[in-house]
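Design request, tokens follow.
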């Protein structure tokens, strides 16, 4: 893989998507669209937010090594298709991936120069508030996501950079400056 990978990860509800979008705009980088077995949320389009696959199709592609990384999260499978990254990499300095921590660990093991960034909430209470405020998950799903967040937060020191998303503009600035400084 010639193009550098920028991996953004962290607990669900921490604001990864917002920070990633601002990074993409500031540095004019392409984004790899992940695949998932979860159902589309209202307003989501196949191939835009995610490549929505059946569990059977996902497993078939995973068995034939079509994923750079894949992981199960909150009962659904997520992954980055190798050809998706290659298609997005054409002429770009880097490709940005927003993925789960288990997938980020796989990328770290497979791509030595990947830039691994962990987005952290200012507190567990704030993370709960954000998840509830999204209004996209049932109380059971929120509890499952918070349980997973506890595991994910314990891993944050293993990443190249930890950005605490407390103040959006400060977090964006820190993220953009760090990535800019690490791009070759």
């Amino acid at each position: 893989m010639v193009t550098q990978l920028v991996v953004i990860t962290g607990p669900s509800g921490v604001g990864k998507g917002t920070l990633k979008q601002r990074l993409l705009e500031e540095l004019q980088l392409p984004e790899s669209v992940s695949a998932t077995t979860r159902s589309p949320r209202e307003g989501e389009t196949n191939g835009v937010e995610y490549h929505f696959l059946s569990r059977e199709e996902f497993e078939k592609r995973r068995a034939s090594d079509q994923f750079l990384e894949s992981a199960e999260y909150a009962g659904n499978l997520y992954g980055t298709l190798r050809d998706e990254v290659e298609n997005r990499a054409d002429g770009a300095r880097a490709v940005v991936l927003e993925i789960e921590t288990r997938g980020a660990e796989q990328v770290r093991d497979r791509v030595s120069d990947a830039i691994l960034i962990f987005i952290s909430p200012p507190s567990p209470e704030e993370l709960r508030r954000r998840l509830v405020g999204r209004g996209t998950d049932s109380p059971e799903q929120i509890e499952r996501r918070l349980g997973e967040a506890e595991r994910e937060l314990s891993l944050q020191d293993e990443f190249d950079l930890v950005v605490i998303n407390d103040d959006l503009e400060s977090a964006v600035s820190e993220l953009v400056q760090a990535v800019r400084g690490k791009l070759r």
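Comment from the thread starter after seeing the answer: thanks! The longest strand covers residues 67-73.
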